[in-house]
Amino acid sequence: MLYRNCHTIIDHSGRISAAKWLVCLSILCLFWLFSLPVLAKSSSVKDDPLVFDDTPLKDALHLPSWFKLSFLDLQEDLADARSESRGLIVYFGRHDCAYCKAMLEKNWGRPDIRTYTQRHFDVIAIDVLGKRQITDHKGKEMSEKDYAIQQKANFTPTLHIYDRNGKLAYKLIGYRPPYQFKAVLEYVADNHHQNEKFADYYARAQLALSYGNKDLNRHPAIRYGDKLFDLSKTKKPVMVLFEHPHCHACDVLHGGPLQNMLITQWLKQFNAVQLDSTSKQPIITPSGKRTTSRAWANELYLDYTPTLMFFDEQGNEVLRIDSVVWFYRLRNVLDYVLDKGYLKYPTFQQWRASKKN
Prior knowledge:
14 helices; Glutaredoxin; four-stranded mixed β-sheet; 17% strand
């Protein structure tokens, strides 16, 4: 019934009918909100750190009391951390962010991760829409909002992790599950970032942690196969879904947000393809380069699967989601790319704020 009501929201011109869209969105959002608690009843799903409701929070988040009380002078904060041979984490968040809540509760809510962070790092918080004044690491003053734009903080949470020498060692964009989050902290605290990429460092641990379907999941709106994909000739924006076998997070993506019929309808407006990041499938990238899926994934420095890459019709990368994603964020990102919001706003967060206003 839902499908029969919603499959006509896209008219013959390829545009979404506004009236039908509002009706369909209301139905599907109610369906999603009521189905998620049912889904979470099983113990396996309830305990899975990848599963949570990502709709914006009604009650504002409260940051941990152990975060550093900062005057938002990054030069001073970096100097303080260096003087104690500690690193610094700059946390970009917002008060209604469900992914921030997941990070605070599922990651920093664990005593081992919280203790490890407190031992090796100071943490300061920045509101991506905030008005407080901040002095960046070069001494320039601006608002929190402008600093988030300058640093291209498209998603919340975003963490900029500096090592004990004050060097920016890793940018963690979005929510990652606890086992990978702690690996990122150890990667920087133990100075592995000086010798290798995080993808290589993490791959060794991932061999022991990997589980999930041995075959890639398929989706009706996403092309797959062993033949050459030429992504350089397209009249649609391009979405590339990088996955690999035995990837539990990939299984969750396919069993969760990609099952939504509205998401499927949106994906049909993309030239969407699925690639195995470990295979040698021939590819012509959106920029026209001939390569393989594995070589391209390495060139893009992908260290999380699944990763969703978005490109415009000219082959330019618009955005990537290389962290856990659920319905609300994925829906907004698809809309952002189709709406060409990147041409009007400096970050996804600013586009999203304009929609709310």
